[in-house]
Design a protein that fits this description.
About 10% of the residues lie in helices and about 30% in strands. By secondary structure, it is α+β, with helices and mostly antiparallel strands. The chain starts with 10 loop residues before the first strand and ends with a strand. It comes from Auricularia subglabra (strain TFB-10046 / SS5) (White-rot fungus).
């Protein structure tokens, strides 16, 4: 750490990467419910391979069958039956969410519902598959089977995103905090029964303004909000009790309706949303950084109600890094304290001078392991000596014209792939969409048209295409991917990065652990895109609200 030089008025917070055993499907499923992303593909289509799929009618499994019976279960083949109503309707009426694909390897002993209606679906014809792929449904029959979601949900591996570790304390006199002259008395970091200090892992989310965590309200007293999964399973209590939680806010917090908010991740209709209720309360968080320990007062939401999806997907809470100047807090105007973004609090505390932060996320395939492989640098740029220095940064205007206040968005005109093979022509992919730069997304999402072009590009490099089950092709070290943005002040700007950093993701699919799914999928909108973690593995990204026009900076990671 002696070679790492931290600029003055800078706070460096290390990040913890998602677990190595987290599947690609788990990250995809989390993105879907968080942003309300629907696949818009009929899962009875023969081109949709075996796997778990969440639909409007519930969770379904698609399995391989042949004349002697299912390939992954004992017993004879079942006779064809009608597809459950609403599943095989095609189009966007039955959005499918791949959850996982190998029941035996994932959940030993889990069996499908015995009274499951099923349908046999012709498999697609032969095709040339990438070497190493195990696409077992070619020239086979597939069957749909409903699955009891309560058997499955508690056993799925949560995605969790990139998290920052904190210690937390609360005032011992919080019950008196309604008084105007209240001065908090801090009790020190909370400890476990064995005397060890608790650690909170908060998911870093550049598309959220409010910070929240779970509280230790008795599980029976929490508000059980309806979601895609229901509350029948007893596993949910153990999920809840394993989390680091702050003390339950005092009764006057609970009784004051102005102090409560409902935060909704995903679409606002509730069809694909993750809602939770939170009470605004006071904490003191302790940041253990490279060289020193800082304590910072932070107003957070204490979660008192949630869906099973929130309980399952979020580790201990969310650290909001959304926009400050055009923030979109879920809390109203009459709360006891104002919900501030984390950057606002750092600046008000004098820890940083400018409302600027940079996020560095390394690629596990192409970057060596460093002491600081993933981190946020608040107040200045990246830390010299932590990881190989990125290339020169380009500056892109933040765009709020599409009503995206509170998030970091820019107008993405096109994406260009440039192969390093001599004589190769650039492959332009027109986008013309507002793109949200979101560290909370496990991959990137574009319109159906853009995704089709990415799939064709992938197939040309030896990968397999399709919205479900596509595996990435072979991209060379010197192949480039160019993101062309357009802004009011800086005009047209091109950010040039290493193509394989963006197109090759480290998360393995349970469908085929020997291949990497292409981390580009179809989003819910023809006019809005999401640039997720694979974009962060391609560029070190700066978020700047210190100037009149907010800016994003993209500095390419080295071509390794």
């Amino acid at each position: 750490m002696s070679s790492q030089r931290i600029p003055p008025k800078t706070l460096v917070v290390p990040l913890e990467a998602p677990g190595r055993n987290v599947s690609y499907e788990s990250g995809y499923a989390h993105d879907v419910v968080r942003w309300g992303i629907g696949l818009g593909q009929d899962i009875s289509d023969a081109n949709v391979g075996p796997g778990f799929y969440m639909t409007e009618k519930g969770l379904f499994r698609k399995v391989v069958v042949d004349d002697s019976g299912p390939a992954d279960a004992p017993g004879g083949a079942q006779p064809p039956a009608a597809v459950p109503q609403g599943i095989a309707t095609g189009g966007h009426s039955a959005p499918a969410i791949p959850i996982s694909t190998s029941m035996r390897s994932m959940i030993p002993g889990l069996t499908p519902t015995s009274a499951a209606p099923a349908t046999n679906v012709p498999a697609p014809g032969p095709r040339s598959d990438r070497v190493g792929a195990s696409v077992t449904w070619i020239n086979r029959l597939l069957r749909l089977e409903p699955i009891n979601v309560n058997e499955l949900a508690p056993l799925l591996d949560p995605y969790g995103g990139y998290t920052a570790a904190f210690q937390v304390s609360v005032p011992s006199n919080l019950s008196d905090s309604h008084r105007a002259d209240w001065v908090p008395i801090w009790t020190g970091p909370m400890t476990l029964t064995d005397g060890a200090t608790k650690v909170w892992y908060l998911w870093v989310d550049s598309a959220a303004c409010d910070t929240w965590t779970f509280c230790d309200m008795d599980f029976a007293a929490t508000r059980k909000m309806p979601g895609k999964r229901n509350w029948d399973s007893q596993e949910w209590r153990s999920f809840y009790e394993r989390k680091s939680r702050i003390p339950t806010p005092p009764q006057w917090h609970i009784d004051n309706p102005n102090n409560e908010a409902t935060i909704i991740y995903g679409d606002s209709t509730g069809e694909h949303s993750l809602p939770l209720t939170v009470l605004l309360t006071q904490t003191m968080i302790k940041l253990v950084t490279l060289d020193l320990t800082r304590e910072i007062p932070l107003t957070v939401g204490a979660a008192t109600g949630f869906t099973p999806g929130v309980l399952h997907s979020v580790r201990d809470g969310i650290l909001g890094l959304g926009r400050t100047l055009t923030r979109k807090s879920f809390f109203g105007q009459h709360t006891r304290w104002r919900s501030e973004t984390f950057v606002e609090v750092l600046k008000a505390s004098g820890i940083i001078e400018k409302s600027v932060f940079w996020i560095t996320i390394s690629h596990p395939y192409y970057d060596r392991e460093y002491t600081l492989s993933h981190y946020i640098s608040f107040g200045s740029s990246w830390v010299t000596g932590a990881v190989p220095a990125p290339g020169p940064a380009v500056c892109v205007d933040v765009d709020d014209s599409a009503g995206t206040q509170g998030t970091w968005c820019a107008m993405l005109e096109k994406i260009i792939f440039q192969s390093a093979t001599p004589g190769s022509r650039p492959v332009p992919i027109e986008v013309k969409q507002m793109a949200c730069v979101d560290s909370g997304c496990s991959q990137s999402y574009f319109s159906e048209t853009v995704c089709e072009k990415f799939n064709r590009l992938n197939e040309q490099h030896g990968g397999t295409g399709g919205n479900v089950g596509n595996f990435v092709g072979n991209f060379g070290k010197d192949d480039k991917i160019i993101f062309e943005f357009k802004g009011q002040w800086h005009g047209t700007v091109q950010a040039v990065g290493q193509a394989r950093r963006f197109l090759v993701g480290p998360a393995k699919s349970r469908a085929n652990p020997h291949a990497d799914p292409l981390p580009v999928k179809q989003t819910f909108s023809e006019s809005f895109s999401l640039l997720g973690v694979n974009f962060f593995r391609t560029f070190v990204i700066g978020f700047d609200e210190s100037t009149q026009i907010p800016r994003l900076f993209f500095a390419p990671h080295p071509f390794l």
